[in-house]
Write a structure and sequence with these properties.
The protein is α/β, with parallel strands linked by helices. The chain is about 50% helix and about 15% strand.
Amino acid sequence: MDRLAIVVPCYNEEEVLEIASKALREVLEDLIKKEKIAQDSFILFVNDGSKDRTWELIEQEHAKYPVQVKGVKLAGNVGHQFALTAGLITAKDMSDVTVSIDADLQDDVNVIEEMIDKFHAGNDIVYGVRSERKTDTFFKRVTAQGFYKMMAMMGVKTVYNHADFRLMSKRALEHFSQYKETNLFLRGMMPLIGYQTDSVYYERKERVAGESKYPLKKMLALAFNGITSFSIKPITLITGLGMCIILFCIFAAIYALISYFTGNVVQGWTSLILSIWFIGGVQLLAIGLVGQYIGKIYMEVKQRPRYNIEKVLED
């Protein structure tokens, strides 16, 4: 029987942690009764440097349910993607299969059983895909869908409407652990692993309690990181724009020469100033974009640890 680990990254989740623990323990108990997973399957909460009582509550849950609830305390706040990675790598040697899910329970825990069934059918990765986003605001829904479409245009392979709710087999995690980059975008990395995959579909729910830990600023940062970590098309587009500007300047020069020799010249500075501003703006944009890629290279070559684990709660 396969041992399941449910990995839950947490940042300031004191309002929802006990609710999430109860819901996920019920899922484990149901799957154990149906003999789909081993009896020592567990939940692994990862505390991402929370400033509230999150770690204290994780310790309390572990004390009450030492077999079912375990915890990892990171030495500081490293961000969702790194915290999730820390949990997955920790769970890799403790389980046969993992499911990652956020603590807010907006992802439907009831489809975990379907994920397990698809895993037993031979799939190494099973993606949780949102069939509906009714609980999202209009702005968030439009921007999220636009993000996936933009990623596809940039040549980044992702699963449409999939976040970080997924099942991974032990061998898929072993392969994932070989990816050492600092600029993490897990939604783009998972399709690179290969192996047989499948998807389950569910309706996204309202957050059970607390506030979202992914405001617009963080969502935009994640999107930009995903694009620049997996695609060089933005630089290619800048190159194409530069060629178009050069072509435009050639036609403008021809027009200026014809006007000069025909005596049809109007003195003025408007067109000159607009041209300077436009070309200067394009240059700054291009330099900034190239700088982002250079910055990522700088972060990668330093090879600093992506996270530090301060404490692990086990049996």
